[in-house]
């Protein structure tokens, strides 16, 4: 379980920003873990701003919603740079579906953290082909704290770190849920692939 570094310290003089990245496959609990951390920051009376890419409207136009239907309000943004303007004087910045942002998200996350904010990001580390999902590798490299969470393989019940696409679509970005993806372990992911 991730334990927050110095969560209760609201003294602006002591503020030291950092980046946390929560990564893993689909259904691995990235959004639930993001919401858990953000709710705890709210309990600690910190000012929290939450963003998600505007393209992700699967469950809700603005809220961040997990597969298990835990919810937190958020602001959808088109470009990573919008986050700098909208973050204002908050203490904590939460970002879901980080893999859908442009490469500028790496500079934005670093700027916010260097300005003293706690930046918590969740995103897919691999795409449906098992390849790194840019810009996640760069975000992982910049992060002080990395948490990799795992789903359950829908084939064998082992731990899963791959997102298997059930449809023939070949584009990198195809929004979907259980209708078009399932979590799989390495063995079951590569089983039917050439
Ligand atoms: N194969 C699976 N493995 C684990 N959890 C699953 C699976 N399929 C559905 N779930 C549900 O998804 C929830 C996690 O959802 P969420 O936090 O939105 O994941 P992520 O953001 O990583 O896609 C779990 O608590 C569980 O209820
Ligand atoms: C693997 C993969 C996934 N996607 C899409 C499918 C979903 O809409 C999101 C991931 O959501 P989650 O909160 O992590 O479950 O990403 C995609 O567009 N391309 C892919 O390769
Ligand atoms: Zn498996």
From TrEMBL:
Annotated keywords: ATP-binding, Cytoplasm, DNA synthesis, Kinase, Metal-binding, Nucleotide-binding, Transferase, Zinc
Reaction(s) catalysed (UniProt annotation): thymidine + ATP = dTMP + ADP + H(+)
Matches recorded under InterPro entries: P-loop_NTPase, Thymidine_kinase, Thymidine_kinase_CS
Keyword Ribosomal protein applies: no
E.C. numbers: 2.7.1.21
Subunit annotation: Homotetramer.
HAMAP family: Thymidine_kinase
Protein family membership: Belongs to the thymidine kinase family.
Protein name: Thymidine kinase
Species name: Echinicola rosea
Lineage: Bacteria, Pseudomonadati, Bacteroidota, Cytophagia, Cytophagales
């Amino acid at each position: 379980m991730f334990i927050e570094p110095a969560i209760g310290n609201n003294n602006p003089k002591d503020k030291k920003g950092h980046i946390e990245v929560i990564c893993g496959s689909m259904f691995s609990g990235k959004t639930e873990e993001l919401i858990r951390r953000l709710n705890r920051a709210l309990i600690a009376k910190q000012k929290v701003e939450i963003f998600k890419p505007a393209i992700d409207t699967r469950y809700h136009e603005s809220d961040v919603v997990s597969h298990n239907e835990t919810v937190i309000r958020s602001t959808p943004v088109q470009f990573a740079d919008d986050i700098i303007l909208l973050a204002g004087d908050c203490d904590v910045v939460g970002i879901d579906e980080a893999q859908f942002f442009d490469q500028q998200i790496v500079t934005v996350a670093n700027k916010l953290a260097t300005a003293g904010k706690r930046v918590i990001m969740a995103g897919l580390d691999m795409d449906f082909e098992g390849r790194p999902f840019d810009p996640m590798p760069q975000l992982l490299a910049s992060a002080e704290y990395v948490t990799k969470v795992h789903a359950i393989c829908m084939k064998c019940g082992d731990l899963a770190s791959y997102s298997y696409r059930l449809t023939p679509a070949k584009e990198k970005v195809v929004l979907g849920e259980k209708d078009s993806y399932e979590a799989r372990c390495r063995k079951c992911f590569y089983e039917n692939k050439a």
